[in-house]
Specification:
Length: about 400
């Protein structure tokens, strides 16, 4: 057997999973299972941008392979397709290891994608309904939708030319801020904080914050540190972009501070806003078919759990976030087993209403204003909420893992 070719094929599947946003442990476990299907036991190590695997052949020789992974971008359809591929390969491993690479190539060629206009419409819808979700009126919703659309256009164009994520986020945040402050300069009566908060949900690294905390809590220190660095750089790019737009329009176009009005909605209506807002993000994350509806339903259920837990625990956002995260994670695990796909497919979208997007914006705003005390306080609060979300997901996944090991024994 050509062990070099076998390792290349196994690492290719693991790289594809990481490239499209799968968890570190899923990529490592997939490579382990593929090697086990050929009767081999190897060593596998992965971080967000690199995969390394080695195996000892029956003749005593050791073979190894290291692959660099491009900057991850979340593609739920790709995660599910490559997960299905790995299941198929493990159940019926081809005699020729080169077939692994061929199967990966065919999978990539047959991947479904949303048209660009649908993705841009999704950016508008997501930002529009997240503005309503954050107690904005219909005026704030339209303004946030336009700001989110501007950011989405920048994201789409810059991703096509392979710009690095920092520049992409910076330019997109500036476009978002320019639309918001431009509308205010033209006299639009909108609450700037709500409009920008709804719009930056297109860019917000709240899910990255949660993932880095999850990696650290599960013991993946290198992966957690790398994800943390990306989260901080993303937040910094958003702060610089929106801050530059604020300074530009405030100085040269005399943009006012807008209004401070908010709108109170009934809890069921807010959950509906969460559902539709999540639906808007499905094209951007390439969630296909009935999975899109199920992901958004998880987001609405999670926010409902948060609202119900908040008064019970004396308004503690940390405990309410933990309980909501446990519910969303349990729902994701259930859907994963029903539909035979990774739980990540549901977590990616369903966690959006819970990620600390508002507190990230507030921390950035305080930092730009030079208010160090409030900046540190809000930044620590953001980390606290992200930690609670990560802990909730980790508790459920650990429980499911223990149950799976017990069942296998």
């Amino acid at each position: 057997m050509d062990y070099d070719l076998l390792l290349e094929g196994c690492c290719e599947v693991g790289c594809k999973l990481l490239r499209h946003g799968a968890e570190i442990h899923r990529a490592e476990d997939t490579i382990h299972r593929l090697l086990a299907a050929y009767g081999l036991e190897g060593e596998v190590f992965a971080i967000p941008n690199c995969v390394w695997a080695s195996v000892s052949a029956p003749d005593g020789r050791t073979y190894s392979r290291m692959r660099r992974v491009p900057m991850p971008t979340t593609d739920v359809e790709a995660i599910e397709r490559y997960n299905d591929l790995s299941r198929h390969l493990c159940a019926s491993p081809p005699e020729d290891p080169g077939e692994l690479l061929e199967q990966c190539r065919l999978t990539e060629q047959t991947m479904r994608q949303y048209p660009v206009p649908i993705c841009l419409l999704g950016y508008f819808v997501g930002a529009f309904f997240f503005a309503l979700f954050f107690s904005g009126g219909w005026t704030e919703g339209v303004a946030a939708g336009l700001a989110g659309l501007a950011a989405g256009i920048c994201l789409t164009v810059l991703s096509r030319i392979d710009a690095n994520f920092f520049l992409t986020t910076l330019v997109s945040a500036f476009a978002l801020g320019a639309v918001t402050y431009g509308l205010v300069a033209l006299g639009a009566p909108v609450n700037i904080q709500i409009v920008i908060t709804g719009g930056i949900m297109v860019l917000v690294p709240g899910l990255v914050f949660t993932n880095f905390m999850r990696n650290l809590l599960s013991g993946d220190m290198i992966a957690g540190t790398a994800t943390f660095a990306r989260a901080v750089l993303s937040a910094g790019a958003i702060a610089l972009g929106t801050g530059a737009a604020m300074v530009l329009f405030g100085r040269f176009f005399q943009a006012s501070a807008g209004t401070s009005s908010t709108t109170a909605y009934a809890a069921p209506l807010v959950c509906l806003f969460a559902f539709v807002a999540c639906l808007g993000f499905c094209p951007g994350y390439n969630v296909q078919g009935v999975g899109a509806f199920l992901c958004c339903l998880g987001g609405a259920l999670g926010w409902m759990a948060y609202l119900l837990a908040l008064p019970v625990f004396s308004g503690s956002t940390y405990i309410a976030s933990l309980i909501a995260a446990v519910l969303v994670a349990a729902y994701s695990e259930l859907m994963a087993r029903v539909r035979k796909c990774p739980a990540t497919s549901y977590l990616v979208i369903a966690m959006f209403p819970l990620v600390p997007g508002l507190t990230i914006y507030q921390a950035m705003d305080y930092g730009i204003q030079g208010n160090t005390t409030l900046f540190l306080e809000t930044f620590i609060r953001t980390f606290g909420i992200a930690g609670c979300l990560a802990l909730g997901v980790l508790l459920v996944s650990a429980a499911m893992d223990l149950m799976g090991r017990k069942r296998r024994r």
